[in-house]
Specification:
heterodimer, A: about 325 residues, mainly alpha, MetI-like fold, 2 strands, flat, B: about 300 residues, 10 helices, about 75% helix
């Protein structure tokens, strides 16, 4: 008698456990995962808000002229961001003018010309080079490439163009041109890796159909592969550009850090990121610090827009190689 | 009936068409050859600087390497024979604390992404993607405003925070991919046995996804170890030995930067030596993460 009662009690209690507790537990589990995700969003928001709050004195004082002002003078406490916006655009433009054709050509050659046996180790090597720290590129650019730019590339450019306009002035080695060149080397692995993924994702039947019609390899690439991959390639270019816009330490080492607007490719200049890195620890005056953080806000806004656009473009292609995208 | 021999219009044209086609084919083949050899040249152009960076760093770096280089502290400038012991320890502390925070946070957030759908999850995923493209100097300003300015001094922990924020989206997205690749039949079997979701996650999902999770963590570490900009006004660097998270501290990338821009050959030697050490560290982590990914792919097949 008593045994049966105990058994029923046990059955009752385990029944309760089995059917009610897990549901509650699962809800806790899902709830805490969601909480983590909310916390992540909070971190992102705090990042933006903190920067804006810290930069407010500068924005409040200078207003819109913070963006359009051409002088950056810590001694007279006058701060305008235009020289650095221009410097950022110029270095990025130099880098992208070289990286787009060369990166695209390399990716096409890797995927459609080289045999698989050479292709995979070569593209792995290119991707591993994307992981080389930027400070190492900076060191190499400053100590090895800069003298070479000063004695060979700059005199050659000045000679060919007659030393006019952007090719005039003292040849220092360090400056706008070297910063653009090193940025080109640094964004190239990104450009190649993502272009390669996008080009590989072009449907094989389209490519084969074009070959069957008698197209040569170049015609297939030009008329079928590139048009089919264009959205993804635009995404690759945008991602590489985002990287070039925000690259800090290598540029700081080789650009010369001048706060004046450069009138020659050979002149020293500065980018948004490089001037922050260069002056932040020297900024004892509160306005100076707020203005530097204001440059950070400009950089953050630009990078959010560029990266959001890039991700939308690359995502629309589907079939994303996680490894190479994560490397960026 | 006599058949009239009419000229065959097609036969006449055929030879002409063949001639044109043959000429066009030759022309197209030549274009193709030229254009493709340009692509080949571009591949060469792409490889030369990348190989040159490695070659120079290995050559100059090895000249600086010795047992003392790793075992000693920096000497005052002008006195040769300084080492990077404090920077190795500093980088270990900074990246250790960053990883300790970012790994559990990132993996759990990745698990949320893998197991949720809908607008909120999409938004979080997008935020992670965008955050991974935000320049690292921004993280330094963030850490400065939150941890350096209020406390009034530079510290290793502020650097850890900046590096941790940098690592977070990388770990999240890699974990998401890894957890998604776990076959749903496995976790459903666990749930069918009556296990709680948390138990299934701990005993089934995470062990199965482990190689992928490790891949993501190594990738994030490779990125974090080499970053200089987030350390600039957080850890700030130091000539002395420190293992306190709350004091300014030396770090490997900072040594490369700060010694590299000096005009003294001794300091530049140290910078090259440290750069080589840093490259080997980062490549080791990257190759490790790649091997993990390859292993994962083989397992899936």
């Amino acid at each position: 008698m008593s045994e049966t009662t105990t058994q029923t009690t046990i059955q009752k209690s385990t029944a309760g456990r089995r059917f009610r507790l897990p549901a509650v537990h699962d809800r806790y589990f899902r709830g805490s995962l969601t909480a983590i995700a909310v916390l992540f969003c909070a971190v992102c928001l705090t990042l933006v808000v903190t920067l804006v709050i810290q930069a407010r004195p500068a924005f409040a004082h200078f207003g819109f002229s913070f963006l359009t002002g051409t002088t950056w003078d810590p001694v007279r406490a006058h701060y305008g961001a235009l020289p650095f916006i221009i410097g950022t655009l110029e270095t990025t433009a130099i880098a992208m003018m070289l990286a787009i054709p060369i990166g695209l050509g390399t990716a096409l050659f890797l995927v459609h010309v080289l045999p698989t046996r050479i292709r995979s180790p070569l593209s792995t090597a290119v991707e591993l080079l994307a992981a080389v720290p930027s400070v190492v590129y900076g060191l190499w650019a400053l100590l090895v490439v800069a003298p070479w730019v000063r004695t060979i590339i700059e005199p050659a450019l000045a000679h060919i163009t007659g030393g006019a306009g952007p090719f005039s002035g003292v040849q220092l080695g360090v400056g706008l041109l070297l910063a653009g060149l090193i940025l080109f080397v640094m964004v190239l692995p990104t450009m190649v890796a993502i272009s390669r993924d996008v080009i590989t994702a072009v449907p094989a039947d389209q490519v084969e159909a074009a070959y069957a019609l008698g197209a040569t390899r170049w015609q297939v690439l030009l008329r079928v592969v590139l048009p089919s991959a264009r959205v993804g390639l635009l995404g690759a270019v945008t991602l590489a550009m985002g990287r070039a816009l925000g690259e800090t330490i290598a540029v700081t080492m080789v650009i010369g850090n001048s706060t004046a607007i450069a009138h020659s490719l050979f002149a020293p200049s500065a980018t948004l990121a490089s001037i922050i890195a260069n002056q932040f620890t020297e900024a004892t005056e509160p306005f100076h610090l707020a203005s530097l953080i204001g440059l950070g806000v400009v950089l953050l806004a630009v990078s959010i827009v560029v990266n959001a656009a890039a991700r939308l473009l690359v995502r629309s292609v589907g079939n994303r190689g996680t490894s190479s995208v994560a490397l960026v | 009936m006599t058949s009239i021999q009419l000229p065959d219009p097609i036969l006449d044209r055929r030879q002409e068409i063949q001639r044109i086609a043959a000429a066009s084919l030759d022309r197209r083949k030549i274009y193709s050859k030229i254009a493709l050899s340009f692509c080949g040249v571009f591949l060469g152009v792409a490889l030369v600087p990348l190989v040159a960076v490695l070659a120079y760093t290995i050559q100059r770096g090895l000249q600086a390497w010795s047992v003392d280089f790793f075992a000693h502290l920096p000497t005052p400038s002008g006195i040769p024979g300084g080492g990077i012991r404090n920077a190795i320890v500093g980088s270990l502390i900074i990246d250790g604390i960053a990883a300790a925070g970012a790994i559990p946070f990132g993996i759990l957030a990745g698990m949320f992404l893998a197991e949720s759908s809908g607008r909120f999850a999409d938004g979080v995923r997008f935020a992670a993607d965008v955050l991974s493209g935000v320049p690292s100097i921004i993280m330094a300003i963030f850490a400065y405003a939150l941890l350096v300015k209020p406390l009034g001094h530079f510290s290793a922990i502020a650097a850890s925070f900046a590096i941790g924020v940098l690592m977070l989206p990388i770990i999240m997205r890699a974990s998401e991919t890894a957890i998604r690749s776990v076959p749903s039949t496995l976790s459903e079997a666990g749930l069918a046995l009556g296990a709680r979701q948390a138990t299934v996650a701990r005993r089934v999902t995470i062990p199965t996804a482990l190689p992928g999770l490790i891949t993501g963590v190594l990738l994030a570490l490779a990125r974090g170890v080499g970053e200089t900009a987030p350390l600039l006004f957080t850890a700030i660097g130091s000539q002395y030995f420190s293992s306190s998270p709350f004091k300014p501290i030396a770090a490997l990338p900072l040594v490369v930067y700060q010694d590299g821009i000096q005009a003294y050959p001794d300091l530049q030697r140290t910078a090259w030596g440290t750069a080589l050490f840093l490259i080997l560290l980062v490549l080791l982590l990257s190759v490790g993460s790649r091997l993990g990914a390859a292993w994962l792919r083989r397992e899936k097949r």
